TrEMBL record:
Sequence positions that bind glutathione: 86
PANTHER family for the chain: GLUTATHIONE S-TRANSFERASE OMEGA-LIKE 1-RELATED, GLUTATHIONYL-HYDROQUINONE REDUCTASE
Disordered: annotated segments: 309-342
Domain of life: Bacteria
Site (Lowers pKa of active site Cys): 242, 285
A cellular-component GO term for this protein: cytoplasm
Active site, renumbered: 53, 184
Protein name: Glutathione S-transferase family protein
InterPro entries: Glutathione-S-Trfase_C-like, Glutathione-S-Trfase_C_sf, Glutathione_S-Trfase, Glutathione_S-Trfase_N, GST_Omega-like_C, GST_Omega/GSH
SUPFAM superfamilies in UniProt: GST C-terminal domain-like
């Protein structure tokens, strides 16, 4: 299959997404940015994700923590894709059983013929029309928390506490710029100078996080929030992919005492580790990024058994779900395949 190239002189992410939103009280007509508001409605939408993708993994975690499985169906693409589209190669016949399409691109094209930008996950698709609604990953999870409250499970945590939102915005912005996107800035750098600058920025941010998390159990204090979800998906991929494949190799995550304990604390919390598929993560990066890894060989390591070892973060106190409770087991159809986790 034809492969996309990723390396460029200095990596800049294309952040021009479909900014439509699904909201509890939609207003008629587009807003000032031309975005449309769609109504919250159980059974109307399908979340299309890929376990391999960190941006999509966020939506899987938040959907599960809030108990939205019955309200929003889930379609999973395979771990690899070509330059054209993510594909449903995990499904029988390579066809999504609800949307009836082999490629996510078909949903984009159904609404926007000749769609000119990248076909990205996560995406939300309207089931009846087969049209993409939005791929604005950062807003999707915030809307899961704030707009879909009528369908939250009993005991769902408050992942976006109103009293913390100003500080959360600052923290999440820095995590996004310097860590979530920072690893890509290292990995896709096409010149030494660009790579060196990206590397320094990444490790400055990871040093800041080590310090911040030394005295608090979670990024915003005593309970899990959206900020932790956003950081976790990068940390989960750090040793399997970013340390070697993206040359973020000052230290392994397992060599960072605070961040490693914090990451294990989250991994062992329902909703985090049970949505993480290390096999698909490695397949995606090492197979798809052929301009970085021309052979497409997927490494057998690292040893991931340490994710299940004691982390000791309970000593900092706190309650992961605040006044809420942990989600129950994932639906049988959504369980990570045996041998793909830690």
């Amino acid at each position: 299959m034809a492969q996309q190239t990723y390396v460029e002189k200095s990596f800049e992410r294309d952040t021009n997404y479909i900014t439509d939103r699904i909201v509890a009280d939609p207003q008629d007509g587009p807003d000032g940015d031309g975005a449309r508001q769609w109504p919250v409605e159980a059974g109307r939408y399908r979340l299309v994700a890929a376990r391999a993708c960190p941006w999509a993994n966020r939506t899987l975690i938040v959907r599960r923590l809030l108990g939205l499985e019955d309200a929003i169906s889930l379609g999973l693409c395979g771990p690899t894709h070509d330059q054209d589209s993510w594909t449903f190669d995990l499904d029988p016949g390579g066809i999504d059983p609800v949307l009836g399409i082999p490629r996510l691109k078909d949903a984009y094209e159904k609404r926007f013929p000749g769609y000119p930008r990248g076909i990205t996950v996560p995406a939300i698709v309207e089931e009846t029309s087969g049209e993409v609604v939005t791929n604005d990953f950062a807003q999707i999870t915030l809307d899961f928390s704030t707009q879909w409250t009528a369908f939250h499970r009993e005991g769902a945590p408050d992942l976006y506490p109103e009293a913390l939102r100003d500080e959360m915005t600052e923290v999440m912005d820095r995590v996004y710029r310097e860590v979530n996107n920072g690893v890509y800035r290292c990995g896709f750098a096409g010149e030494q100078e660009s790579y060196d600058a990206a590397y320094r920025r990444l490790w400055d941010a990871l040093n800041w996080l080590e310090e911040r998390l030394a005295t608090r159990r979670f990024l915003m204090g005593d309970t899990i929030t959206e900020a932790d979800v956003r950081l976790f998906t990068t940390l989960a991929r750090f040793d399997p992919v970013y340390h070697g494949h993206f040359k973020c190799n000052r230290s392994k995550l397992t060599e960072l005492p605070v961040l490693w304990a914090y990451a294990r604390d989250l991994f062992q919390t329902p909703g985090f580790g049970d949505t993480t598929d290390f096999v698909q993560i490695k397949q995606h990066y090492y197979v798809v990024h052929r301009d970085i890894n021309p052979t497409g060989i997927v490494p057998l390591g690292p040893d991931l058994s340490g994710w299940l070892t004691p982390h000791g973060r309970e000593e900092l106190g706190g309650r992961p779900f605040g006044d809420g409770t942990a989600p129950g087991p994932p639906p049988a159809a959504e369980v990570v395949p045996e041998g793909h986790g830690a």
